[in-house]
Amino acid sequence: MLRGIPRVVLVEFLGTLAVVGVFVGLGLWLDRRVSVLPRKEELIEAGRPRPLGADHEVGQAPHTALGCDRARMARVAGAQRCACKRMMTPQPEDEVRFGDRTLAVVRVACPTCGATRTLYFDLRS
Predict the structure, then answer these.
(1) When comparing pLDDT for 21 and 60, which is higher?
(2) Are residues 72 and 115 in the same domain?
(3) 27 and 73 in one domain?
(4) Are 79 and 71 contacting, i.e. CB atoms less than 8 angstroms apart?
(5) What is the pLDDT at residue 22?
(6) Most C-beta atoms within 10 A of its C-beta, which of 16, 18, 50, 58?
(7) Are strands 101-109 and 89-90 parallel, antiparallel or unpaired?
(8) What do you get for the CA distance between the two ends of the chain, in Å?
(9) Are 69 and 115 within one domain?
């Protein structure tokens, strides 16, 4: 006995503290290895405005239109591959206005799986 506390109670108390300490330590280690909650830096980065066109590759949206001539447009449209690895077939070109620019739009389609993609070109004379 330690000052009136039975030995069994003291062992149970220290054992409980040890188990809790081990699980808290494992939780901290696991959180550092595999983040469950976002870190402060990630939250700050998420709050920043993303640059225009960050979600699209060049030519896949009007604001990322590829500046080129008609020959390069035909090469780029003819070289598109589908996710199924087949060559995509270009459809006839169309024109759209985007702000003060006139863009050529070419839709390409996969003859195998039917997937489509739209390509935007800012044609130069």
Answers:
(1) 21
(2) yes
(3) no
(4) no
(5) 97
(6) 58
(7) antiparallel
(8) 96
(9) yes
Q: At 49, which helix (H) or strand (E)?
A: none
Q: For residue 94, what are the domain limits?
A: 62-123
Burial per residue of 1-38, b for 16 or more beta-carbon CB atoms within 10 angstroms, e otherwise = eeeeeeeeeeeeeeeeeeeeeeeeeeeeeeeeeeeeee
pLDDT in tens, 20-52: 999 999 988 888 887 766 777 776 766 666 555
CA distance 114 to 86: 11
Q: Is the pLDDT of residue 115 over 70?
A: yes
Going along 1-125, which residue ranges are E strands? 66-68, 89-90, 94-98, 101-109, 116-123
Q: Give the burial class of 100: count Cβ atoms within 10 A of its Cβ; 0-12 exposed, 13-18 middle, 19 or more buried.
A: exposed
Q: What is the pLDDT of residue 1?
A: 52
70 belongs to a structural domain: yes
